[in-house]
Amino acid sequence: MTGGADFAKLRRTSAAADAVRAIQEMIVDGRLVPGQRLPPERELSELLGISRPTLRETIRSLVSMNILESRHGAGTFVASLDTAALLEPLQFVMALNERTIDELFEARLVLEPALAALAAERAGPEQVAALRAALDDADPLVADVRLHALLAETAGNALLAAMLQTLATLGRSSRARTAQRPGVLDHTAADHAAIVAAVAAGDPAAARAAMASHLTRIARAARLSNTVHISGDAP
């Protein structure tokens, strides 16, 4: 199924780059949707006004970004556009650049204390119960991700929650390494309990302070973990 997508011919300034942008725009505005099959190569190259080799380059680029996926014998399709998959190429950048860890936590320190404060203002009994249940998850990494996501959900701001999901995805490998450092999991559990207690008490200031303290502590551990990881020393 190719749907009713309106493929417009492109100017020849930088055809492959233009084609990438054109297909991205068609996805953003809903003319192409996840799971939709693109027209066959010959037809699509004619619709876009580019050569077939240029189209192949375009598709390779979009596949590498996890925007399209090629299925052998079936064609090229719009991928799921899952946030984690779209951000996956950036994980390599995060691993290479020690500075990005500092920037990641700087962003989290701007965002998450505010989310915790909003959660304290808006949490009802069901949300508090869910937060307390997340503290008891047997897998500490799962508990960590789940708790922060629940706090964002409880804050009641979908845009801020989406921003947090992006940051969480970018920090996934760093989180796993940091958790291996001695004492980190115990401190994290205590920090999380303090955050949930503040939210349950309806105390935005305490929730904000508890989250800021938690992130500051984890940022220090993450910097140490990242330095060890890049230098090649044993954790």
TrEMBL record:
Recorded hits in Gene3D superfamilies, A to Z, give:
GntR ligand-binding domain-like (1.20.120.530), Winged helix-like DNA-binding domain superfamily/Winged helix DNA-binding domain (1.10.10.10)
Q: Which SUPFAM superfamilies match?
A: GntR ligand-binding domain-like, Winged helix' DNA-binding domain
Q: Which keywords, in A-to-Z order, does the entry hold?
A: DNA-binding, Transcription, Transcription regulation
Query: Any keyword Transcription regulation?
Result: yes
Describe the location of the HTH gntR-type domain by residue ranges: 13-81
* CDD domains hit by this protein: WHTH_GntR
**Which Gene Ontology molecular function entries are recorded, alphabetically?**
DNA binding; DNA-binding transcription factor activity
> Which SMART domains does this one have?
FCD, HTH_GNTR
Family matches, as Pfam families: FCD, GntR
| InterPro entries (UniProt xref) | GntR_C, TF_FadR/GntR_C, Tscrpt_reg_HTH_GntR, WH-like_DNA-bd_sf, WH_DNA-bd_sf
Protein name from the UniProt record:
GntR family transcriptional regulator
